[in-house]
Amino acid sequence: MAFEIETVRAAYPALAEGFRHFDAAAGSLVARPVADAAHTVLTGAVANRSTAFAPGRRAVEIVDAARAAVADLVGGEPGGVVFGNSATSLTYLVARTLARSWQPGDEVVVSRLDHDANIRPWVQVAADAGAVVRWAEFDPKTGELPVAQYADLITERTRVVAVTAASNAIGTRPDVAAIAALAHAVGAACYVDGVHSTPHQPVDVGSLGADFYVTSAYKWSGPHLAACVASPARWSGLQPQKLRPSSDDVPERFEFGTPSFASLAAVTAAVEHLAGLDGTATGDRRARLTASMTAAEAYEQGLFAELVQGLSAIDGVWLCPAPEDRCPTVAFRIEGQHPAETSAALGAEGICAFSGDYYAYEYFTAMGLRDSGGAVRTSIYHYNSAEDVAVLLAAVRRLAG
């Protein structure tokens, strides 16, 4: 395993501007090969999809390559990769499509730990269908999402269990496989929000037990595009509302309008970039991705431990409770200071860190923090350096002092 931080950082042109980026949970910087891939398509002869002429065939190849790349990234099948503008829009699409067969009294299980994009679509379609919403609660003292509660929440009427693979607020990684097994035992589907987990660890949708897995490319060095991955057979059993002349094939029937071929080429380049984070990795792309994401995770976790230890040692700084085993994200507040004020003060020093609820609406409401500004969120990504962490900690010490 080899992870060379200076080599990794050199692939991100934006780092030359000198900002300290702890905002990757909201969107990472773009790697140079990703930008180059988009530029090549935007300046080249690429038409809409057609087999009649070369520019049209290039578009077909771009789409196929992007599906294969995302499948390699998460351990899925290319024919089961559906692209969309965002994870939110894709989740609405799946929720509305699944709910078309629901009956009054059917049930859906959601979690208060989740990003609202994996809560509100299910709550809203349940209301339209007359279905019941059941809520899984996180432990406010530990930040964990206890699996045991799902045995009571999931019943024979459960149709979908929606759960995050990692909290975008505090990094908690629930035991998705165990939750999915409980869902499958009653014939329910498990819809997994992988937006925050995919950038930080190897992913295997089969091991997770995810029937649907959604991820956003702009969280892992790619363009603003998302994908929802399921088996082709799962997609085949669903019929979304769509334009009559548009393709009824899977996965195309779930994609509306002409896609951005430049963005799709950039998705493929982003996956290739991730596969090269470990310069010694060998084998096919899936094998190189597993090795590289494992190396990146180890690097990130080492840096994150320094960040959490440093923040914990500063008087006047309070960290939102979270388990030790989590994605590299921490939310904190400085005593007597509004989180937005902290974020702005850090920003004035060139340190990028968001404040607020970051769409973890139910989490911050349950914690009693949302009305007072939520918290400041700092997240580690594989291009962060030890110097970044040292600069952030020094700034927080000054603000807290």
From TrEMBL:
A Pfam family it matches: Aminotran_5
Domain Aminotransferase class V: 22-391
Name of the protein described by the UniProt record: Cysteine desulfurase family protein (TIGR01976 family)
